[in-house]
Structures are given as C-alpha cells and as structure tokens.
C-alpha cells in the first residue's frame, strides 16, 4: 500500500472519528439534560444536525453511541509504525499514548463524560464488556502478527487480556476520580504492567 493511500485512509478514519466524537458530545449533553433512558436516537441526530439514517451509519443503537469509537484503525496504524526493536508492550503503550496525545481537550472531556456514564448505567457497562472483548481480539491479532505467533496462542491472548485489564482498571479509577488525567493514568498503569506489576 502506497504512502498516499495510507495517508488518505488515515485522513478518512480521522474524519470519521471526529464525526463520531461530535455525535457523542451532543448525546452526552442530552443525557445530562433529559436522562439516558429518556433520550431518543432522533433527538441525538437532531442535536448533531444529522439524519437518523446518518446516525445509524455510525452507531447501531443508543448504547453504541457511548461505547463505540472509531479509534481502532488509528491504534492499528500507530502500532504498526512502532520500531521493531520495541517489545510488544512498549509498542502497544506507545500506540495507545500517541492516539491520546492527538485528542483535543473537547474530545478528552467527551471521553471523561462517556466513561462516567458507562460506569454508572448497568446496560452500558455490560455493553462495554462486549466491546472490550472485541478490542482484546484486535490486540491479539496485532501482537501475534508482530511476534510471529498465531492469534490463538495462549501467551498472545494472555498478553491482550492484560492490556484490556489495565484499560478496565483505569476506567474504574477514572470514574471515581474524574479530575485525574486519563492519558497519564493509562500511561502509569501500562508502565506498571511493563515493570511486572510491582506492589
């Protein structure tokens, strides 16, 4: 794949991620004002100045607007760009952190509010677990390719599970400490994993 094609795909993915973040921002405002259960997809679409059919191109339902993002392709690209001499954990950590440093203050605030809502609405928390299972599968495929193992290798799956576990622990901590810096928390948690989880 040429550099030009990669750049175009990257731009398209970034634009899609920005649109999704905008819809999520409007949805969060409505959830604050009306409550999660009382807010409809039609109201979210109207607030975001898109049609309901456009909403459904990005999200399959109201739960998805809170648990889905389009950063996976960006994570994959950032991971694949990591130097080969880095360990798989260092490569994952750098890829995750590079995605966060590119986020605007508004996107970070939207992420904070999403996390608060996910951790307090049982249906969203359950849906997030399914989403994180998909993220774990993505990580197993990325890492297996990098280290030359199969995605179903137990060591690769355990590695991906540890990364997802770090993510879950940070989400819970962040929900309880919303004034904290999410990117810093994630970096510190991944550093602890890299150090062998000393207690």
From TrEMBL:
Where do transmembrane segments lie in this chain? Answer: 154-175
**Which segments of the protein form a coiled coil according to its record?**
none
Q: Which InterPro entries match?
A: Homeodomain-like_sf (IPR009057), HTH-type_TetR-like_transc_reg (IPR050109), HTH_TetR (IPR001647), MftR_C (IPR041347)
UniProt KW Transmembrane keyword: yes
- Residues in the DNA-binding region annotation: 40-59
Keyword DNA-binding assigned to the entry: answer is yes
The highest taxon in the source lineage is Bacteria
Q: Where is the HTH tetR-type domain?
A: 17-77
GO MF, one example: DNA-binding transcription factor activity
Cite the entry's keywords alphabetically.
Answer: DNA-binding, Membrane, Transcription, Transcription regulation, Transmembrane, Transmembrane helix
Any idea what this protein is called?
Answer: TetR family transcriptional regulator
The source organism is: Paenibacillus glacialis
> What high-level taxonomic lineage is stated for the organism?
Bacteria, Bacillati, Bacillota, Bacilli, Bacillales
